[in-house]
Amino acid sequence: MKKLIILFMVLISPVFANNCNKKLFTLKIDTPIELKNILNDLSSECNLNIVIADKYAAKALASKINYINIVNEPLKSLLNIIFYSKHLFHKLDKNILYISYFKTKIFKINYIPSSISGDTTYGNGGSNPNSSINTGSNNLQTNYSFNFWSDLKVNLENILKNTSNFYKAPIIDKNAGLVTITGTKEQLKEIQNYLQTLNERLGKEVLIDVHIYSVELSSSHKTGIDWSKLSLALPNVSTSLRAKRIFGDESIFNSATFNAGAFLNFLAQNGNVNSISNPKIVTLNSQKAIMSIGDTIYYKYASNVTSNNNGNPTTSYTINSKFVGVVLAITPQISDNGNIILSINPKISSFKNITQLQNSNRDMPPDTKDDTLMSVVKLKNNETLVLGGLITNDSQLEVNGVPVLKEIPIVKYLFSSREKITSKKELVFVITPHIINLNDKKTLKDYGFKKLPSLEDLNVK
Predict the structure, then answer these.
(1) What is the pLDDT of residues 130-140, one digit of tens each?
(2) Which long-range contacts does 233-242 make (Cβ < 8 Å, 24+ apart)?
């Protein structure tokens, strides 16, 4: 003790006797001194057994402290200050002082152990084997892949690498939702800040209310709906309350300006209106929600022609299926100020020639035509987005003729007629996102839900 005071101007003086936990310490350093020398004096004074956990801690203890001025502090505070200066962990258990450069900490992540991969529409041959979503069998190639836990591990490793030259790989138990990190003080601090922010964002949910309408365009609207007239159809709508979007129309409305009945009447002015679907889906913040409306059509085609022992040809047929209809993929992201950024990807698929389904001599699946749209918009909570512009030409074959006779091969051509009927339709999406706060006790009515008038109530035909 006295030797340190003389050589290094270090003073460690107990104010109270006997138990070091009841003593106050004064430590003054104005000449560089190795930390291990200070610990040696403390060990002698307080009968401490010092355990050094790793070589990195031993290296830090051999480094010098340049300046410290501690006056009348308990032992716990003294240890906190000197070890903090060297970024070391310590634990005092009775008369044993454990010192380490690394510490292991377990964090909890509230997330379902799942992954999603495939395409937001439909690929030939069925769903991706690694996908938890059945994606049918019609190829519209917009591939996506999302594996929360793999992405999380990469992010954690990058944080550990950027914080220190040395790092240990994180251990992730996705089934239990646990992340185990062994790192330095700086690494654990950065990881804790990241995971805390992540948990806060994952705890937010978005309820997406979608109405999908099909407008069979009249002869005077073959080029599509004139969206510039929408502002005239809705009451109490000012231009300042809406934003222009990709169709050249103003298509975002707050809850005070959007009137469902007036909107349906506006659509009816352009042609026959049909409500295709009204899905409501809840998804976590930044997670993709997928809605599909359509039919799965089964067909067969000649896949192989061989000859038997007698030289007669034998045809093998393959039975497969195709999805035709509408797929809507929406990914919401809640910003810090409460706005919602929506990534919206609607796609429509249909057959080019419906008669190909009956052609057994065809050696490939029937042809399809696909229309797609991608858009990113920013909405306030409970605002409504109107999205239109996807126009399709639907064709169907209508057979007229004498009953029974029109079904007989060869003869049927004498007693029947076939007419290909084509109609032009525009799909309209009305999308309203609602942020759900699980801490608030609210009903669906609080999130903007109410009974909407039916097409019959509005006399829409």
Answers:
(1) 333 333 333 33
(2) 233/262, 233/263, 233/265, 233/266, 233/269, 234/258, 234/259, 234/262, 234/263, 234/266, 235/259, 235/262
